[in-house]
Design brief:
One of its GO terms (molecular function) is phosphorelay sensor kinase activity. Pfam families: His_kinase. Keywords: Coiled coil, Kinase, Membrane, Transferase, Transmembrane, Transmembrane helix. This protein has nine helices and seven strands. The chain is α+β, with helices and mostly antiparallel strands. It folds into two domains: about 110 residues; about 200 residues, Histidine kinase-like ATPase, C-terminal domain (Heat Shock Protein 90, 2-Layer Sandwich), CATH 3.30.565.10. Helix 6 runs antiparallel to helix 7. The longest helix is centred in the middle third of the chain and has 70 residues. The radius of gyration is 37 Å and the shape is rod-shaped. The two termini are about 30 Å apart.
Length: about 350
C-alpha cells in the first residue's frame, strides 16, 4: 500500500514537472521571455493545480459524492472566478508592461470571449479530477465487491467442507458397525484407522490447498479401511502417481467418489470390481473410477447422497472453468472421469 502511495506521488510530480517545463522548452526557437512564461503559463498552471487538488482531495468527496451538486458547482465557480481575478491582478501588478503590450496587440478577442475561454481552461482540471476520482472510487467499489464475494465464497466452501466431514464419519461408522458382530478385532483395527483419517480431516484440511501427496496418502488409508469389510468377491485395484511433491490441490475432492464406488459398486452375492486410477498430465490431475453399478435398495438408508452434490458444488466454487466432471452408467458399470486444471 505504501509503495503504491509513493508511486502515485511520483507520477503526480512527474506530470506537473512536464507541464511546467513544456512552455519553456517549446519556446526554444524564440527568445525566451521568462516574464511572459510566468504570466501566461506558470501562474495559470499553479491555479489549475489548485483547482485539481481542491476537488480531488476535498470537494468531490464532500459535495459531489454526497449528492450536493449545487454546492459543488457553486464552490468551483467561486474558486474559478477567484483564480481568474488573481491571475489578472498578478499580471497587472507584476508584469505591467507585458500586459500593456498584450492589450495593444491586434487580433485580440473581445473581453467576454477572453473570460469565457479562460473559464473553460479552468474546467479542464476540474473535469479531469472528477474523472480520476470517479474511476478510483469505482475501482475501490469493485475491489470491495470482489472481496465480499470472495469472503462469501470462502464461507460457502468452509460450510461444504464441514458438511463433508460428518458425512464421511457417519459412512465410516456404518462400515465399522457391519464388522462388530462377525469380526471384533477387525472392528478395533478399523476404529484405529478411522481415528488417523479423522485427524487428517480435522487438522490438516482447514487450508485452501494441500499437497496432493497427502491426499493420496489419505485415499490409500481409506482404501485399506474399506478392504477390511469387503469379501473376496470384490476386487479393488488402485494406481496413484508417485512424484507429486510440488502439486497442491483443494482438499477432499476425491474421497466422495471413492465412497460412492464402494456404496454402489459392491455386492454381497455377486462379483464386484472397483478400478481407481489417478494420473498427472501436463497441468491436469486426472482421476478415474470404474465400478459395477448396483443401485441402492429403497430400504438402504446408509448415506444421504450428499457426497456427490457436495463435490459438484465445491468444484464449481474452487475451479470454475478449470475442471470437467463426467459420471455415467454404461452396460451396468459406473464411470467417473474428473479432470482438474492446476
Amino acid at each position: 500500500m505504501h509503495k503504491n502511495k509513493y508511486i502515485s506521488i511520483f507520477l503526480h510530480a512527474l506530470v506537473w514537472l512536464v507541464l511546467f517545463s513544456m512552455p519553456y522548452f517549446l519556446s526554444y526557437q524564440e527568445e525566451r521571455d521568462i516574464n511572459r512564461i510566468i504570466a501566461h503559463f506558470w501562474v495559470p498552471l499553479v491555479f489549475y493545480a489548485m483547482i485539481f487538488y481542491l476537488n480531488y482531495f476535498l470537494f468531490i468527496d464532500k459535495f459531489l459524492f454526497t449528492k450536493k451538486t449545487v454546492r459543488f458547482i457553486s464552490v468551483n465557480l467561486f474558486f474559478i472566478a477567484l483564480f481568474l481575478t488573481l491571475k489578472e491582478l498578478i499580471g497587472t501588478n507584476i508584469f505591467q508592461e507585458l500586459v500593456k503590450e498584450d492589450k495593444r496587440s491586434d487580433g485580440k478577442p473581445p473581453f467576454e470571449m477572453f473570460i469565457y475561454m479562460q473559464m473553460l481552461s479552468y474546467f479542464a482540471p476540474l473535469v479531469f479530477a472528477v474523472a480520476l476520482k470517479t474511476t478510483k472510487r469505482l475501482a475501490k467499489t469493485e475491489a470491495e465487491r470482489k472481496e465480499a464475494t470472495n469472503v462469501k465464497l470462502q464461507s460457502e466452501i468452509q460450510h461444504l467442507r464441514y458438511q463433508l466431514q460428518p458425512h464421511f464419519f457417519f459412512n465410516s461408522l456404518n462400515n465399522i458397525y457391519s464388522l462388530v458382530d462377525f469380526s471384533p478385532e477387525q472392528a478395533k483395527s478399523t476404529i484405529h484407522s478411522l481415528s488417523k483419517l479423522m485427524r487428517y480431516l480435522l487438522y490438516e484440511t482447514n487450508i485452501e490447498l494441500v499437497p496432493l501427496s497427502k491426499e493420496i496418502d489419505f485415499m490409500k488409508k481409506y482404501l485399506e479401511l474399506m478392504k477390511l469389510r469387503i469379501s473376496d468377491k470384490t476386487q479393488v485395484i488402485s494406481t496413484f502417481p508417485s512424484e507429486v511433491h510440488a502439486i497442491k490441490i483443494a482438499p477432499l475432492l476425491f474421497i466422495s467418489l471413492i465412497e460412492n464406488a464402494f456404496k454402489h459398486g459392491v455386492s454381497a452375492s455377486k462379483e464386484s470390481e472397483i478400478f481407481i486410477h489417478m494420473s498427472i498430465k501436463d497441468n491436469l490431475v486426472i482421476f478415474k473410477i470404474v465400478n459395477n453399478n448396483y443401485p441402492k435398495q429403497i430400504s438402504d438408508k446408509s448415506g444421504s447422497g450428499i457426497g456427490l452434490q457436495n463435490l459438484k458444488k465445491r468444484l464449481e466454487l474452487l475451479y470454475p472453468s478449470k475442471h470437467t466432471f463426467k459420471a455415467e452408467v454404461v452396460n451396468g458399470r459406473f464411470f467417473v472421469d474428473l479432470q482438474i486444471e492446476i
